[in-house]
Each structure stands twice: as structure tokens, then as C-alpha cells.
Task: structure prediction
Amino acid sequence: MAVKKAGTKTGGTSKPAGSPKAAPKKAAPKKAPKATPKAPKKGTVKKAMAVKLSDAQSRLLSTVQQAKDAGYLGNKAQAKTLDALVQRKLIKRGKKEGGFFRYQLTKAGEKHLATPSTPAPSASAPAPSAPAASSEAGASPSPAPPA
Result:
């Protein structure tokens, strides 16, 4: 039995059959150059989004503020919260003491604490609905007409 080679043809042509010269394709119409993103006008100021903090983060931020220049000595339980505040650039990491860092408030942290947050009802002023209910309970209801 004779083994047939895969690469030989019996047509006598040395050129591959699948590559006759094709007609030149028409060039695609040139597209307009892509518009570059416009820079904001010099007069407009782009404000950064307000930082939103959880209750635990805001409490810890105020604790760091109270530590002043000495800095707040973090602990293992508050490590994630402190790292989140460092990432938001509200506090900065200081020297390491005994395995933990001292943290100090940044200018951005001061601004965040200075902005008034949503007013919480104060403990000294009772809610308006509470006294009204108690005063009505002591007074007799309007008299019912006799039957």
C-alpha cells in the first residue's frame, strides 16, 4: 500500500488554489475623530461627594478628635473602623506604640465633624406627642349627653 502525502496535489499547479487575486475593496469612509472629553470650565468648582459614615465610625471619629495632639491609641477591636476612616482620609496614622498605631484627625475630619448632621431629638426636650397624651389622660373626656 502506498502512503499518500497530504501536501501534494495532482493538478500540476504550484500555486494554492484558494488565493486568486481578489478585487481591491473600497476604503471605508473616514469617520470623524472621536470627541475628546471636555475639561470642566475654569469657573466651575467640582465638589467631592459627602462622606457617609456609620454610627460606629462617627463615634470613633469624635473620639479621635477628643484625643487632640496626643493621638488616639487604636486597638484590635477598632482596627477595621480605623482603617476605613484612614481610607476616607478623615484621620491619619501616626507612630506605632506597643503593636498599635496612634491616630490623629485631619482637616477633612475636622470639616466632617463641623458639618451639622441630621438633628437628633434631644433627651432634655420630650417628644411633643408624649405630654399631650399624658395631659389628656388626667382630664375627663367630654361629657356624654344623658340618655
